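User: Modeling request: complex.
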Amino acid sequence: MSIQEVPQGRLRSPFYSRLQALDTLNTWHEWKGYSSADALYCAETEYFAIRNATGVFDLTPMTKYRISGPDALDYLDRLVTRDMQKIKPGRVAYAVWCDDQGQVIDDGTIFHLREGEYRLCSQERHFAWLTAAAIGFDVSVVVETAEVAALAVQGPTSFTVLSSMGLEGLATLKPFGLRHFEFAGTELMVSRTGYTGDLGYEVWIAAEKAELLWDALFAAGQLHGIRAIGTHALDLARIEAGYLAAFEDFLPADTTVRTGRSRSPFELGLDWLVDFKKPNFNGRKALAEEKRNGSTWRLVKLDIEGNKPAHHAYIYAKEKRNKKEIGFITSAAWSPVCKQNVALGTVRMPHGKTGDTVWVEIFYQREMHWTRVMAKAVVVDKPFWFPPRRSLTPPDPY
Amino acid sequence: MTDRYDAIVVGAGHNGLVCASLLAKAGKSVLLLEANKQVGGAAITRPFADGYSVSAGAHLLYQLQPEVQKELKLNIKMAADNLSTIVLSANGRHVRYCGDEVSGVRQKDVDSFAEFHQRMTRYADLLRTAFNKPPPRLGTTNKKDLLSLARFGFDVRRLGKIEMREFLRLIGMNIHDELSERFDNPLLKGGLSLDAVLGTHLGPRSPNTIMTYLYRLAGNRGRLALPVGGMGSVSDALAHAARGAGVTIRTNMPVKRIIVENGRATGVETEEGERFSSLTIVSNADPRRTIMKLVGARHVETRFTHRINNIRMRGNAAKLHLALDGLPTIDGLTRKDFGERLLLAVDENHVERAFNPAKYGESSPSPVVEMTFPSFRDESLAPTGKHVMSAIVQYAPYDLKGGWTDTAREEFRQAAIKAIAQYAPDIEQRIIASELLTPVDIEREFHISGGHWHHGELTLDQFLFVRPVAGAAQYQMPLDGLYLCGAGTHPGGGVSGAAGRNAARVILSGGKPV
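Assistant: Request completed. Predicted assembly structure:
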């Protein structure tokens, strides 16, 4: 008698069969209803695939919305804080959108697929908000999360892998550009985007062709160190790149209950995304007021002494812990590629200016016993990992 | 170069006229733009058949505020004042009421009615104190807001312990339960039920119908009048006052959009492409039309558009106008009685049953009716010896299932005439011409979204501090320079001028609480 599998009530991505075949750890978590792997064989090895070869991450659970209709541009321009008029067809925009109080609901990427046709991608689901925002616009917002399978193909050899898969003309694709290719009788969209801060692409295809794409990709990548990766490896890479994660570095405004627990774009270091010169966008009035009166919080990137990751640590202005803390760490890691102890954190204004020294109180356990160190940390403004190959066009072959 | 004004008022309804006049009297240069060829909005007199004219929208005057009359020095001549209401009975034993007196019912109901009327007018007077000032904003620390809020609380408390408790008990209640508790006579209950639900998407068993009843009394204790020349003469008097104050009125000038630049209203553009600029734009149009059509969702916040878009404003009252070659015969009515207000409602259940189909997007097969024969007191409205009947017929839902096709309209017209013929059997022979205005027609003619004469259901969730919606109660829209002055704002619909006057006061105070 065989023992039956316990159904988890989770959706399987169209790449599930391929991921399962590679999986040796059986450690999965839930991501917006889908099963998503923490790691498949070893998070560290998978991480090094991103930095030294090519890591492939299943992006399908990313929530995807198709936005089209005569008012699509106006709609998006009102939705997000940056100027969408500047995002031409074939370009991708990283953007944040705010509630009426100017508090960030989420960040995501908006792909201008064709004239007047867009795809918005985010980690969290926002159909209710996007629908409410559509009132008064001639626009259609369709969820296409399940219909579109997607993979992040990231790392120094990713260009070579995709080129040897037969995608001609990829060399001229600039960062935040997208291009359509013919693949297996259908359309394959490739964008030069990612969450790793490295050379990398994201590939998008109809769900029913997902496995064909996977197989072609891995066949092409065999000689170039291609590896499937899980969330742990990706998370480490995104911290090195200084990217934010919802529910880690900020809470979507619509999920907060207490006042002061949500964040404005300014408080997340996203000033560059807020364009007061364009016509009205949601939250504009509140953000203009915040701009005048000053923000409460500041997001900081910290280069911390030592090698103990500063998970969930309090941040102090002085080494002596007699004063009240000024903030806390939201994401932390020892960065293997930078050989640095890095973290993202939130501090109260006016603390945390670039170059400031702060102190991070790190607790760590050694054989059950807790130890505490006050580690000196410097506020930096650049991402920890920012290799030239990230933006080099055409990319160098590896 | 475009013409520049201190203020531009969009829409010359009675509130627009009042607001424009008061702004002009305060020394502002004011431009008033009206889409129709005639000012007055839904308070107009216009022909509907050869030689016959009627008050096409509102047909009785009962709410015009003395403050408005005084400040604008209006002198409106009445053809009839203090009209009685007669609830018709098929067997000629009609019930009449006026003020606190009722006849045609048993002594118990007579006594009960006096008490009922006394209590209702006391509460209505309380509401009236809130009528003529902008509602205080909630959640602010502004002293004037807090003081105004405290004063309202104090006014409620001043009723005394028992009356305050009664007020708080009744305000959210339905009229049916209160009437059943007090009265026996079905016609009386029918008539009062109809009073409470006229012009609403509510039945007598709907919560909040005591409040709509109080609202009716709040303007002028429910005292009904017919102006000479119909409701149009009220608007003419207002227009005269406006011109006298220096307002530039331009008719046949539908506004296409309110121009927004750098996050504030800066002017308007007409359908014909003419532009006028001003840093104060006042819209007499309903809140939904103002925000969704004239301003555009683009220029306001998402949750705000959501709230505006969800204002309940489904019109449910139709107007029926009949040109008659003579007065019909109604059993038990003297000739003089045709000058009064006649109601057709057998009992409170009749009103509720008439409402039932409307809940599901169907019109009433057996509608309830408020009827007047304005030509009886005012010969200017019809050729000599002929008459005009003006009636409000309920219920005719705006979003009728299948739409207001010719068949649907004819069906409802027939139902209305059949309802009237039960009391006036010869009505059909006397009809020379007729006109039915469904809420869809009312929307088209008067540019009111949903054809709802209050520009939004008058219910507790859309009243006082939250009218039209939370966050925009003080006539100011969350767009700099944009104000509302119509029935969609506090206190609500009815030809009262209160909204227009309150809006003008807020604008003149520079947007500070008054």
